[in-house]
## 1
Amino acid sequence: MPILVTDFDGTFTRRDFFDLVLERHDPPGARALWDRFLAGQLTPLEGIAGVLGSLRTDEAGVEALLAAMDPPPGAAAAARALQAAGWEIVIASAGCRWYIERILADLDLSFVIHANPGWFAPDRGVVMEADPRSPYHDPALGIDKCAVVRAALARDAMVAFAGDSPLTDGPAARLVPPGLRFATGPLARAFAADGTAHRSFATWPDIAGFLLDHA
Ligand SMILES: [Mg+2]
């Protein structure tokens, strides 16, 4: 069974959950914490978990953030068409399983999810912790996307990857053939700049359409 390993924030959805937390709530300390990550003083896991944990809102507020992540129109239909054609869809995310599951449930989609476990509470924000028992555990990112792709390649010769981040998606994207290496946003710009062959895409349904027509 061919496998599409895909990032979630900014790849399956058009927005990043942690960007939306900063943009819409700007919790005290969150931006300073994110600046420490950008300065290399925190791991991505510490930076993302710190921002998510700084959120203070109620269930309605978190619902509004989930709605703002904005999976593109046609994403659910595209995913179902890909699955009907025999593709397995695997999410590999340095974000939190809690909001990924909520969004996929709203779309009535069922994917394999490798992401950091967590939960939401109004007085704790989105509490995200790495799972050291995961076979794909990585201390810096929570999830080792390269390990997810290697495991997929061990199961099937045809593995596609899609992502938007040079930092968290770039190394995993390089493990699949250029024709199945899908990039958008900063990752597409980084690949264009360093000459790494890839297929750029605007929104996630474009990937499904390409795989259904060509792979
Ligand atoms: Mg992303």
## 2
Amino acid sequence: MEKEHDDKLRIWSESPADTEELGVILGSILQPGDLFFLSGELGSGKTLMVRGVTAGLKSEELATSPTFALVHRYEGELPLYHLDLYRLSEPGELEPLALEELMEEEAAIMIEWGDSAKEILSSSYMEIEFLRGENDNQRIITFCPFGEHYRRINRLIYEKITYEIRNFK
Ligand SMILES: Nc1ncnc2c1ncn2[C@@H]1O[C@H](COP(=O)(O)OP(=O)(O)OP(=O)(O)O)[C@@H](O)[C@H]1O
Ligand SMILES: [Mg+2]
């Protein structure tokens, strides 16, 4: 893993394991009410990162791509709602999900393909962008914070990664 730091935090993942490990680090930082949108093309690594987050939260069940439901709740040190709205055909289908109510819970929320949900939720959130790199196993992962709380999360992730690189590589 390599890193670069300003307001945004950009991380070069060199393998699926790198991306999952980044999720584990994120899981150790998450707090109730935290809201993350994950964007990037099919197969760019969004679900794999959420899987790492569930591992970091010590959930018995690890996140996978949902086959049917749009929302799945994982129980761990902090509950995590994982939403994948890829199959949403019109914004009206969001209503039964009662996203505003999820936001009130003592849980964190990570949403794939969530553009349609962005307007109705908070103006403060983290957007994580996933891009494919030059080779098959490379992904460029950019944490874009909206609001001071999420800038602080970026500083924490940066510190944790720096610490891991110094001690384990
Ligand atoms: N550095 C990497 N980080 C993440 N995934 C990687 C990496 N290199 C290769 N891969 C592969 O890319 C795929 C990522 O799949 P994943 O389901 O996480 O994507 P996704 O962004 O959630 O896709 P979708 O939009 O279909 O939900 C996996 O097959 C994984 O093994
Ligand atoms: Mg996915």
## 3
Amino acid sequence: MTELSCEVLIIGSGPGGATTAALLAEAGRDVLIVEEGPDLTIDSAPSYSMAELDQKYRNGGLNTSFGRTPVTYIEGRCVGGASEINAALYHRPHEGTLEDWRREYQIADFGLQALIPEFQQIEREMSVSRRADGLSPSSQTLIQGADKLGWKHAEIERFWKYEGAPAGQIDRGRRQSMTETLIPRARAAGARLVPDTRVLRLVMNGPRAVEAHAQGPDRKRVRIRFEQLVLAAGAVQTPVLLRRSGIRRNIGDALRLHPMMRVAARFDHRVNDPAFGVPVQQVEQFKPALTLGCSHSSPPHIALWLGRQVPERQRIMAEWQNVAVFYVAVQGEGRGTVRALPGLGEPLVRYENTDRDHRLLGEGLHHLGRLLFEAGALQIMSPVDGEAPINTPTGLPRLLDLPHKGIAVSTIHLFSSLPMGEDRERCAVDSYGRLHSYENVRVHDASILPTSPGVNPQGTIMAIVRRNTRQMLAGGGRLRS
Ligand SMILES: Cc1cc2nc3c(=O)[nH]c(=O)nc-3n(C[C@H](O)[C@H](O)[C@H](O)COP(=O)(O)OP(=O)(O)OC[C@H]3O[C@@H](n4cnc5c(N)ncnc54)[C@H](O)[C@@H]3O)c2cc1C
């Protein structure tokens, strides 16, 4: 058995955990980060490769929720969490969303004005910027279609740093994930990081958490003592860990997500250049309820979204540069639960889209289809299992009547499993992320967003966590002085 002790234990090293660790360590706190996944560099494997799925994705990316329409979901599992595998798109949230959260969940000292200094700091420190290497052909396709329809669109900024390239080469820049930014900062300030170690259970003594029991490499048992505990294991794993530890009130009862669907479209000219990575353009016209955008479109991804139903699959794949994948994401109003499977302790996620969400997925696909035909698409692959491709705009209305089965709904954005606020009937943590009824436990990750933000969430998570960590340092966390 390995014994460790610290002043603040942080479980999970994604955007929530890394932000907390950097701020606390730089303020002179004794911080220990425990991370289940391996400690790897951002370029330990090519983006979206099989090797990356093995190294950095939980269960190789294959997780699913149960419900009328199953939703597959992806979680990162490595130092840096999902920031190591994501597209790094950055948004400030809509002011109205923050205002709804403040009012409906009774969150103190909250709103866009209160968070603006946090967003400004994040934008500076994380090199939030527009592309310096031009727009990909699929982004240009999206722009062309949106312009023809008179729809607003925008290039989305990213956590991305450009430092110049050798003469004659294009500067593609570098994703500013946690292992590139806040993890090295936390370590430089003295934080200790223990990778490959999964916390299995917390030990409570009345209103205080006192120990964490974990499993390290070679199934070695690890016991960690601490004064303050920060949970940052993500919107699925944080509630599961609490429930495994016997803490259940309002834990994992209100999971939200952004349901997404994708379609591949074929053109008579090149629309796909993998050198650009994930394209950055989104249609703004229907936000925040609906977002349309371009997806990663490497040949294996195209093959995935062609579906089984396209007989001329091989011919299409032979011309893969003329094919790109696009998505629709809904600001989901559905709800789900996260439970720990008895005996195993692994998550069991249930989620139901509302009828409105299901309808919006269909409407979003219909909008996307119109846009793609306006941009010159020859053919749009149906997202419904067994249905033939759509070859003209007259075939689009069938997308408005999606079945509940036989469609691939997925998500990469999960939140709200422990909503924050003073309304104790439905909130798990208070206005600053402190677990209600416990003295020394905080939650600093995607779990605490009260509902779906309707925009790529990492910026919002980091801003709220920064605010809560600063409140912790100001004395609200009763840290040892
Ligand atoms: C493929 C993909 C693309 C995305 N693209 C974008 C994007 O472009 N823009 C955007 O804003 N958002 C994007 N997101 C979402 C964003 O990455 C997440 O919202 C964000 O990373 C959540 O941060 P977090 O700190 O809550 O948790 P996570 O990033 O999930 O980190 C949690 C960490 O905790 C660790 N952990 C879990 N359980 C334990 C345990 N028991 N013991 C120890 N460690 C544990 C995990 O291994 C993980 O590393 C994307 C997500 C994915 C998966």
